[in-house]
Amino acid sequence: MNQVMTQKPHELLAATLADELDAVNLLIRERMASEHAPRIPEVTAHLVEAGGKRLRPMLTLAAARMCGYRGEHHLKLAATVEFIHTATLLHDDVVDESNQRRGRPTANLLWDNKSSVLVGDYLFARSFQLMVDTGNMRVLDILANASATIAEGEVLQMTAATDLRTTEEIYLQVVRGKTAALFSAATEVGGVIAGADATQVKALFDYGDALGIAFQIADDLLDYQGDAAKTGKNVGDDFRERKLTLPVIKAVAKATDDERAFWVRTIEKGRQQDGDLEQALALMAKYATLEATRADAFAWANKAKSALKALPEHPVRTMLTDLADYVVSRLN
Question: pTM (2 decimals)?
């Protein structure tokens, strides 16, 4: 890393952007209000105030600052990105029938599925109002496309998650939808609103895309070899939930007929029994798929860092470089 990690990169970035983040948080609170439906701010506040890192809006603010922006429209775009993120979390928890997020009960558990879906829809609508407020058609296009990609990725994941025909290419499509699309849109619109040139805007997109993919691959790997106390997940949760993530996809691709029958029973048919997780881990060890997945995560983090070389020298650029290292440092 480029700096001694007395602070984690996202914490250093948050401290650097503190005034702008405060303004974004104020804007979020203003725009999540509803005169006629008090449940909207109740449900929204439950997620927005839950102590998330605000990583996506920070990426927008960081990109705009790095490209020399002096206006205030980046604040609206950062709030837009957070609203889109929050809306997708509300919808995801309904689809996944989740009971917990960030160590707290989910909104659909505290209220109900209908409230979560409708409040998510409200936040999507608010996000489009904020985009329009900037008067910039290009950022509207970028964020609208990202919203469509996110929804498309979620639908693809529903069909691909338990289908052993799912390839690494399809997995990447899912990851781009569920994670990387909003990362890349967040960084790209920061450059666009700052009037950066085409090369710099493309570099910002490439950084966000690679960072998001590295982030998700690392997350999927930690499900099989992480510390439950740090990750908040039990080892093998994805296996128990029959989610085909990269370590398993790599193992299925190399499986013998007998091994494939094991994956069909446990993932496709969901007929799991005692000892299956241990056998799954043994098969991943046999084909070194955890190591291969780790190498993929580091390769994407390196792509993110390489993309930044096209951007101006700036203290924020150093923090973004360290952030790319940090998302995979959890794997060391």
Answer: 0.91
